[in-house]
Amino acid sequence: MDYKIVVVGGGGVGKSAITVQYISHHFVEYYDPTIEDSYKKQKHVDGEVAHIEILDTAGQEEFSCMTEMWLRGADGYLIVFSVTRQLTFNEVRYYLERIERTKDDSPKNIPITIFANKVDLENEREVTQDDAMSLANLNGVCYLEGSAKERLNIEEAFDGLVRIIKKSRKPVENTGKNAKKNLCIVL
User: Fold this and answer.
1) Based on CB atoms within 10 Å of each CB, which residue in 2, 91, 113, 134 is the most buried?
2) The pTM is what?
3) Are 57 and 15 in contact (CB under 8 A)?
4) What is the DSSP secondary-structure string of 94-122?
5) What is the pLDDT of residues 23-57, one digit of tens each?
């Protein structure tokens, strides 16, 4: 099955570092602003082969006109912010609104995970876990905290998003007591 994931967020939050960690198990030390990079990975998620295409987008405002095109064709979204910069957390609402407008649906009906990056810099934290979780809960989307540098919750973010996309593609079969629970991981 094919899964197209778009990674969005402000400049310098670690979108490329997260993506490269997932694809090649390597941490990118230097910051080089991205315009657009596309990656492909094939792996087993829950015993099924997943063909994952990841589009790593620009966080720079001058490229925001390109974002709508990227958002339109995606199956799922990873919205990244840095726990060390409040401004990047404030931008999460902007990306949620852009996705909602582009998909013409509520975020709770769209496979979205908000990823708080750079938790390895806890002593520089400006965004509390409670504030971020509240925003995710308010919008009905998943929330994870992690670190590209320490490879913390990188696999969980992308594989979890694949699971959410897969679940969103299936018709609702069972809404009783034995219905599957939301596959969202909250840390």
Assistant:
1) 113
2) 0.87
3) yes
4) HHHHHHHHHHTS-GGGS-EEEEEE-GGGG
5) 999 897 765 555 457 889 999 999 999 999 999 88
